Amino acid sequence: MAWACGLGLLLALMLPVGASRPGIVVRLNHAMLNYVSDIGKVPLQEALQVTVPHFWHLSGKELQLTRIQILDVHIPLLHLKFIAGFGVRVLAAANFTFRIFRGPEPLELMLPVELMADAQVTQSSIRSPLVSISSCVSFLNNNFLLGGLKSPPALLPLQKHLRAVLRSKLCLSLSNLVQDINVHLGTLIGLTPVGPESQIQYFMVGKPTVTKDYIALDINAFLFLLGTPIVLAVNATPFLPPQSVGSPGAMVTMCLSQDLFDSALLLLQKAGALNMDITGQLKSDDNTLNTSWLGQLIPEVARQFPKPMPLLLKVRLGATPEAMLHANNATMRLQPFVEVLVATSNSAFQSLFSMDVEVNLNLQLSVSNVKLRGYTSVLGDVQITVASSNVGFIDTDQLQSLTGPVFKKPLLNHLNALLGLGISLPHMINLSYVPPEVFIHEGYVVMSSDLSYQRRSDTTTG
Description:
By secondary structure, this protein is α+β, with helices and mostly antiparallel strands. It folds into two domains: 30-187, Bactericidal permeability-increasing protein, domain 1 (Super Roll), CATH 3.15.10.10; 241-454, Bactericidal permeability-increasing protein, domain 2, CATH 3.15.20.10. The protein has eight helices and 25 strands. The strands form three sheets. Strands 1, 9, 10, 11, 12, 13, 14, 24 and 25 form a nine-stranded antiparallel sheet that branches. Strands 15, 16, 17, 18, 19, 20, 21, 22 and 23 form a nine-stranded antiparallel sheet that branches. Strands 2, 3, 4, 5, 6, 7 and 8 form a seven-stranded antiparallel sheet that branches. A hairpin with a 2-residue loop joins strand 17 (322-326) and strand 18 (329-334). It is elongated and about 120 Å long.
């Protein structure tokens, strides 16, 4: 997978400047920061569990060693807020409990500590979000507590040692934690399968936009078929969705451009995933796809095939399907070429006639976990035009019976199974969108959702 990811990155970087790339805008607001504050307390507590060197001190004329252990770090407060044009400010309060192995019984000292850091959010070299600590300061309380009371003066040298250790290590530990976060943020650009031979990959476009209310990421989607990028015609209009869209209060608002849907449908068409064969079985009681049934509509078929023979409808999409996005309404248009064949006695197929078909579909969109999925139903009548015929004149009106269970039902089953597989939206590993809502606007789709992040250690327990 590493070589595929590297190849995808290289191909994406080599795309022509004028090529249209599907645009996605992701906005994360204060509700997201509050959620990160809640789930971030445990990893911050773990990160601040630093190792404390032994304390050497003179007792009389001899050096004595005191072993020290951080017994517990409790984070009662972790607050994050946006810094416009920069990133995020981190404010944390921590209570450190130390175990001092001194004398016959260990002592436990407690020290309140406050941390304040500014984290800049930029773009990494691989086009994923990058967080870096630009400034950090720790505020240590002057008084250690021993059993809820101020510690005795005899422990002052030890306290000085502990303060020096914390001042030197806490900001470094926070910076290391941020580096771990960057590893997770880097999973945003991983190659994700769309089909057996196709993938999708996301990249940030430039630095994130940070305001006092939200952070916005401009993201391009790259779809690949057999390692080759799917490139649309040039679209000179940038994708700039309105500010107030989606569900108020949701942690994340994701705006998906028309280009994303056009690229996905072009990918499916080029991959041949929308092609299908509809076959008839003579021994099926409810199957009408045979020459006897067709001969009732076309006399020449009945003359050439007096005995029932199974038919085959070969459905091929030469034209790319179209998705139309309007306010509260999404539709799709398919224009397949359908060839009607009969299986002859020598196992060969004979072409009877062919049709140009136009099908308009209602498209319902939903998000499950991190995938955008679709479901279709037919709108109105299926339009049929006879393209060629080897069985004489064909009354087009009579062929409408082909568009019932013989054609529409298999087509919808195939299409809905394909769209039901879904296409992955931008996300990090172990991240889910809950509960997602989908809103359709003129020319774009909005997904609003809260976030659910499950740490890897959580997935291996219970």
